[in-house]
Amino acid sequence: MSASHLHDVARAFRDALPREDRLEVFRIDGLDRTGVPVCEAALLPANGEPATIGYGYGFEPIEAEVGAVGEVLEEYFVGEWAKRAPRVQSSFRAMVERHGLDAVADPLTLCLPAGSAWTPDTPLTWVEARRFPDDTPISVPIEWVAAYPYQTGIPAELIMPITNGLGAGFDLGHALAHGLMELLQRDGNAVNYRALDQGVGVKMDAVEEPEVAALLERLRALGINVTVKLAADDFGIPNLYVVGDDPQPAISLQLTACGEAAHPDRARSLRKALLEFCGSRARKSATHGPIDAIRHVMPADMADRQLRNALAEEQEPRPVEAMAEWLAQDAAELRRRLAGSVFRVAREVPFSALPDAGPALSADAGARLDWLVRALAAEGLDVIWVDCSPPGGSVRVVKAIVPGLESETMSYGRLGWRGVRRLRARRDPLLLDSPAPGALRVRLRPEDETRCGGPAWWDAPAAERLVAPLFPLYRESGPFAAQLLLAKRCAA
């Protein structure tokens, strides 16, 4: 995408946001040394509510700006949609009796937490989505559309809402393809990285894009030991992630930086994962680093406002506590925690051997969307989407949902039939074939239990032991929250 087109996208994204609120966009890469432009964007509501924040990165500043404002656009408009969308309070059984089985998403296909108490008679809050490409209506629980719990206006009924599956762009093809690739990315790495890292490194024997090759060399010249890893190649898509040890991080938390990508064009997947790794280093510094350092890159009034909101916001206690515990560690301790998983390479595969649909899919969003939908359909997976676009039609914002794709396995115990099949195939001890103390039944339809080898139980206590020292890899606290908790403890 040319620089002039990116400027057009950035302008359209900005124009779509409410004029009464203030949008701040600023560079945060000064908190790191990679040289990759990284932007933070914050939409500051006129009523004083917490900001909607996004981050972006790229080889050029305009790429970083588009990414950051695009994230704000996604999260803001999915929230606005969730506020105004018509809702129905009903059980799954009653919804099916009223509308038919094909018109209601079965929660058992949506990766419920293991041990979930859901039954077909459990009252839920339903909203209307559409199937793609035939556009037929299908009702889904609102938690699968909202990006954050507060956007629903009600307590979480089945799951903690997450941002996975959001997309924005000039047209539906770009926006929906982006959302689907996020879902595929999470599906591919859900039980294959972080605490469950399988140690599959990628040997960089062929790097198609010169600027990507140059960035790899620059990082290594800085002493950052970059490792490209393979999570999966399901659907013919190279699902990559990039990590890197650093003997001289600006803050120890930079050791935990990670960039992820799943794209049919393997060159694009590598590009995105590598740039996101650099963006993650700066983002972690801007979100959880020393507040005095952050003030050097953030507008002063915005820093003060985020501090006030961090003190006032009600956050999940565990991410705040876990991040505060990490911030209290030095680099050597975090490196030790990552050595056996994130930094481990047990075997390598050549980059040139990874599946590759070629660069044409990077250039044509419509062709990319068609390719993704066909790849999912070949595995019996349907695409559901919600149109959260702002009025006016200049940009599109969507939330994509694909029943059957994996999500949030280690942090929330959300495991579907694909995750069970993967864990069972490698005889992972976290998956049990029969009940055991503390183990939770994986909630699946009978036909999905059959396709993954039978009923399964999730060893929740063992998973907790693995996740506990690495929890902030899965769920981070909000800006400044962990630093403020540490300061409060020191003052006491």
Automatic annotation (TrEMBL):
Pfam families: YcaO. Residues 56-439 form the YcaO domain. It comes from the Bacteria. This is YcaO-like family protein. It comes from Sabulicella glaciei.
